[in-house]
Design a protein that fits this description.
Elements: H1 2-11, H2 14-22, H3 28-34, H4 41-67, H5 71-123
InterPro entries: DUF6768
Protein name: DUF6768 family protein
Organism: Luteimonas padinae
Length: 124
Protein backbone atom coordinates (compact mmCIF):
# COMPACT_ATOMS: atom_id res chain seq x y z
CA UNK A 1 0.00 0.00 0.00
CA UNK A 2 2.89 2.39 0.67
CA UNK A 3 4.16 2.00 -2.89
CA UNK A 4 0.75 2.96 -4.22
CA UNK A 5 0.66 5.99 -1.93
CA UNK A 6 4.09 7.04 -3.19
CA UNK A 7 2.98 6.73 -6.81
CA UNK A 8 -0.10 8.83 -6.11
CA UNK A 9 2.05 11.41 -4.31
CA UNK A 10 4.40 11.72 -7.29
CA UNK A 11 1.45 12.21 -9.65
CA UNK A 12 0.01 15.11 -7.66
CA UNK A 13 0.88 18.71 -8.40
CA UNK A 14 2.21 20.99 -5.68
CA UNK A 15 -1.20 22.67 -5.36
CA UNK A 16 -2.86 19.28 -4.91
CA UNK A 17 -0.34 18.27 -2.25
CA UNK A 18 -0.91 21.51 -0.36
CA UNK A 19 -4.69 21.07 -0.54
CA UNK A 20 -4.52 17.46 0.66
CA UNK A 21 -2.14 18.39 3.47
CA UNK A 22 -4.56 21.08 4.62
CA UNK A 23 -7.43 18.56 4.61
CA UNK A 24 -5.39 15.66 5.99
CA UNK A 25 -6.55 13.12 8.52
CA UNK A 26 -7.03 14.52 12.02
CA UNK A 27 -5.50 12.85 15.05
CA UNK A 28 -7.21 10.24 17.19
CA UNK A 29 -8.50 12.67 19.81
CA UNK A 30 -9.90 15.02 17.16
CA UNK A 31 -11.62 12.06 15.50
CA UNK A 32 -13.06 10.89 18.82
CA UNK A 33 -14.50 14.30 19.69
CA UNK A 34 -15.64 14.78 16.10
CA UNK A 35 -18.09 11.91 16.52
CA UNK A 36 -20.17 14.01 18.87
CA UNK A 37 -21.11 16.45 16.10
CA UNK A 38 -23.37 15.94 13.14
CA UNK A 39 -26.63 14.11 12.50
CA UNK A 40 -25.75 11.00 14.56
CA UNK A 41 -24.39 12.95 17.54
CA UNK A 42 -27.41 12.25 19.72
CA UNK A 43 -27.01 8.48 19.34
CA UNK A 44 -23.33 8.64 20.23
CA UNK A 45 -24.02 10.85 23.26
CA UNK A 46 -26.61 8.31 24.45
CA UNK A 47 -24.18 5.43 23.88
CA UNK A 48 -21.40 7.30 25.69
CA UNK A 49 -23.65 8.09 28.66
CA UNK A 50 -24.96 4.50 28.79
CA UNK A 51 -21.41 3.16 28.67
CA UNK A 52 -20.28 5.50 31.45
CA UNK A 53 -23.24 4.58 33.65
CA UNK A 54 -22.70 0.87 32.96
CA UNK A 55 -19.02 1.17 33.89
CA UNK A 56 -19.76 2.93 37.17
CA UNK A 57 -22.47 0.41 38.04
CA UNK A 58 -20.17 -2.45 37.03
CA UNK A 59 -17.40 -1.12 39.26
CA UNK A 60 -19.88 -0.88 42.14
CA UNK A 61 -21.13 -4.43 41.51
CA UNK A 62 -17.54 -5.68 41.36
CA UNK A 63 -16.77 -3.96 44.65
CA UNK A 64 -19.86 -5.52 46.23
CA UNK A 65 -18.80 -8.94 44.92
CA UNK A 66 -15.33 -8.60 46.44
CA UNK A 67 -16.51 -7.34 49.83
CA UNK A 68 -19.48 -9.66 50.44
CA UNK A 69 -19.10 -12.77 52.57
CA UNK A 70 -22.11 -14.68 51.19
CA UNK A 71 -21.18 -16.89 48.23
CA UNK A 72 -24.58 -16.67 46.52
CA UNK A 73 -24.61 -12.87 46.81
CA UNK A 74 -21.04 -12.75 45.49
CA UNK A 75 -22.04 -14.78 42.42
CA UNK A 76 -25.05 -12.51 41.81
CA UNK A 77 -22.94 -9.37 42.08
CA UNK A 78 -20.25 -10.96 39.89
CA UNK A 79 -22.72 -11.85 37.14
CA UNK A 80 -24.11 -8.32 37.30
CA UNK A 81 -20.63 -6.83 37.08
CA UNK A 82 -19.78 -9.05 34.13
CA UNK A 83 -22.93 -8.05 32.22
CA UNK A 84 -22.39 -4.36 32.92
CA UNK A 85 -18.75 -4.49 31.79
CA UNK A 86 -19.90 -6.28 28.62
CA UNK A 87 -22.34 -3.45 28.02
CA UNK A 88 -19.46 -1.00 28.39
CA UNK A 89 -17.50 -2.94 25.78
CA UNK A 90 -20.51 -3.01 23.47
CA UNK A 91 -20.92 0.77 23.60
CA UNK A 92 -17.21 1.30 22.97
CA UNK A 93 -17.30 -0.97 19.91
CA UNK A 94 -20.40 0.87 18.65
CA UNK A 95 -18.55 4.16 18.93
CA UNK A 96 -15.44 2.67 17.34
CA UNK A 97 -17.40 1.51 14.31
CA UNK A 98 -18.77 5.03 13.90
CA UNK A 99 -15.26 6.45 14.07
CA UNK A 100 -14.19 4.06 11.32
CA UNK A 101 -17.23 5.03 9.22
CA UNK A 102 -16.30 8.70 9.66
CA UNK A 103 -12.76 7.94 8.46
CA UNK A 104 -14.13 6.22 5.35
CA UNK A 105 -16.45 9.14 4.63
CA UNK A 106 -13.54 11.56 5.01
CA UNK A 107 -11.50 9.56 2.50
CA UNK A 108 -14.42 9.51 0.06
CA UNK A 109 -14.72 13.27 0.35
CA UNK A 110 -11.00 13.62 -0.37
CA UNK A 111 -11.49 11.51 -3.50
CA UNK A 112 -14.45 13.66 -4.52
CA UNK A 113 -12.26 16.72 -4.06
CA UNK A 114 -9.56 15.23 -6.28
CA UNK A 115 -12.09 14.34 -8.97
CA UNK A 116 -13.54 17.86 -8.82
CA UNK A 117 -10.06 19.34 -9.17
CA UNK A 118 -9.37 17.13 -12.20
CA UNK A 119 -12.66 18.19 -13.79
CA UNK A 120 -11.85 21.84 -13.16
CA UNK A 121 -8.43 21.41 -14.81
CA UNK A 122 -9.97 19.79 -17.90
CA UNK A 123 -12.51 22.60 -18.29
CA UNK A 124 -9.87 25.30 -17.99
Amino acid sequence: MNKLDEMIGRALTEEDRELLARHGEPGYVAQAFGMFRGPMAWALWVAYAAGAVAFVMGAYAFWQMVTTTDVVAAVKWGVGALLLFQMTTLTKSFMGSHMQANRMLRELKRLELQVALLRAEKRA
